[in-house]
Amino acid sequence: MNWFVYAFVCALSLATADALCKKVLDDDSNSPSVVAWVRTGYTLPFMVCIIPFIDKPDLDSTFYIAILVAVPLDIIALSLYMKAIKVSPLSLTLPFLSLTPVFLIGTSYVILGERPDKSGFIGIVLVVIGAYLLNVHTINQGLLAPFKTIAKEQGSVLMIIVAFVFSVGSCVGKIAVQHSDPIFFSVVYSFLLSFFFFLAMSFRTKGFFSKVISRPVPFLLIGILITIMIITHMKAISIVEVAYMVSVKRLSILFGVIYGVMFFKETNIKERLLGASVMVSGIIMITVF
Questions:
Q1: Segments making up each domain of the chain, as ranges
Q2: At 119, is the pLDDT very low, low, confident or very high (cuts 50, 70, 90)?
Q3: Model pLDDT for residues 23-74, shown as the tens digit of each residue
Q4: Helix, strand, coil percent content, the chain, rounded in steps of 5
Q5: How far is CA 258 from CA 13, 176, 183, 280, in A?
Q6: Residue 213, number of CB atoms within 10 A of its CB
């Protein structure tokens, strides 16, 4: 199968999972921490099926240190991610995931020593312009009003924090993959993240176990979608360069905006879709050129 098809399915499954998570979160009985765990825990039955087909690479201390750093980062990021899409529209939260590659320019330089090129800076400009366009209808309140509106939207602010944490986690994850194997890392990391996430939330949330099994059908669907996202991600990067795959995967942002209108009756769709499109084009400039 063509790598583009894998990457496209990856983007669509991720956006659909986000929309389903928001639908579940509309029920106040489901907390962001519960749904955040569902995104990892409900993938495990499917990950078990992959275990017989993976080989265990030689692991060193760097791999284990990277795992210990990555797990708490992802727990924080996923919890904030779910809270963001609960409190704010998808069309005003998901586009800010575009900031992850922007932050990566700085975090990858500090952590991995990777230097950006000129196209990376052009991409940053496009992402900033796209963020501005998301709330361009407020420009009659002042030239900087669209940016001020972002600061007032709780979900947008939370997703900006998520994007930064993801950028740090991506660097740490890359180190872990370099000292293991991509598929091995994906499967093992899913189990470790789910386990430690469950422990952390069990102490913080009363009746956590009963809550994570309270909605088996939508929770299982979320698990299936995230599993599809992981598998197609790995299949795509095994065929084509990661940069090309990631640029297509980020179409999930546009799909998310469309879902926001279709299922949650979100408004100002034209400017938000335009803003999200410009932000995605910025990602492509950063990752591909």
A1: 3-287
A2: low
A3: 999 887 778 999 999 999 999 998 888 888 888 888 999 999 999 999 999 9
A4: 80, 0, 20
A5: 14, 35, 31, 14
A6: 11
Q: Which of 16-20, 205-209, 217-221, 241-245 bottoms out in mean pLDDT, i.e. has the lowest?
A: 241-245
CB 182 within 8 A of CB 191: no
Rounded Cα gap, residues 1 and 22, in angstroms? 31
Centre a 10 Å sphere on the Cβ of residue 178 and count the other Cβ atoms it contains.
Answer: 14
Average pLDDT for 207-224: 89
* 250/14 Cα distance (integer angstroms): 9
Quote the CA–CA distance of 274 and 133 in Å, as a whole number. Answer: 7
Dihedral of the alpha carbons of 271, 12, 89, 264, in degrees to the nearest 10: 100
- What is the helix (H) or strand (E) element at residue 157, kind and residue range? helix 154-178
Phi, psi of 42 (to 5 degrees): -80, 0
Closest C-alpha to 187, from 220, 246, 230, 219: 230
pTM (two decimals): 0.90
SS (H, E, C) 177-244: HHCCCHHHHHHHHHHHHHHHHHHHHHHHCCCHHHHHCCCHHHHHHHHHHHHHHHHHHHHHHCCCCHHH
Mean pLDDT of 210-225: 91
Q: What is the mean pLDDT of residues 261-275?
A: 89
Closest CA to 151 of 162, 135, 163: 135
Residue that has been written with the tokens 């800010």 in this structure: 96
